[in-house]
């Protein structure tokens, strides 16, 4: 895993293609906590134009938006709790559980905003889906712009 995703406190994001499979351009590694769409993503560009991008930066931008929505709906949650909510509700892909291509799975925003997620550190949390690694501590996980 390379930087900036390898820094402590950064939520490492992988990318999936249009079919929801690990994207060819995506990074892999033990730091990946969650994946999101990262192929053919339309976004704003220079001089009022739009662009079509592909890569983990585009996937990270989508996860950043999800973080903002979760923090808006659940303002009492800390940054690690927000990440826990995202990873606990992600749609598992690849081998069961966490893996180096998808992390805990692909972002499921509807579930992140509506599911009944046990609090971080509860007995049911440990047996269901554990939180992303300690790398997601600090406000950086919820406040850092994607890179």
From TrEMBL:
Q: Which Pfam families match?
A: Peptidase_S8 (PF00082)
Q: Does the keyword Nucleotide-binding apply?
A: no
Give an example GO biological process.
Answer: proteolysis
Residue ranges for the region (Disordered) are: 124-147
Q: Which UniProt keywords apply?
A: Hydrolase, Protease, Serine protease
- For whether the record's keyword set contains Protease, the answer is yes
Signal peptide limits: none
Q: Which residues form the Peptidase S8/S53 domain?
A: 3-105
Entries under InterPro entries matching the protein: Peptidase_S8/S53_dom, Peptidase_S8/S53_dom_sf, Peptidase_S8_subtilisin-like
List the PANTHER family.
CEREVISIN-RELATED, PEPTIDASE S8
Query: What name does UniProt use for this protein?
Result: Peptidase S8/S53 domain-containing protein
Organism equals Phytohabitans houttuyneae
């Amino acid at each position: 895993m390379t930087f900036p995703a390898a820094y402590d406190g950064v939520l490492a994001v992988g990318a999936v293609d249009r079919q929801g499979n690990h994207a060819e351009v995506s990074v892999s590694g033990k730091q990946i906590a969650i994946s999101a769409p990262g192929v053919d993503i339309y976004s704003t560009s220079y001089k009022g134009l739009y662009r079509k991008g592909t890569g983990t930066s585009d996937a990270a931008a989508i996860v950043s938006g999800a973080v903002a929505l979760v923090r808006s709906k659940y303002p009492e949650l800390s940054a690690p709790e927000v990440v826990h909510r995202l990873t606990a509700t992600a749609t598992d892909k690849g081998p069961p559980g966490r893996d180096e291509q998808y992390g805990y799975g692909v972002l499921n925003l509807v579930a992140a905003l509506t599911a009944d997620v046990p609090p971080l550190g509860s007995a049911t949390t440990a047996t269901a889906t554990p939180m992303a690694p300690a790398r997601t501590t600090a406000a950086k996980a919820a406040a850092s712009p994607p890179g």
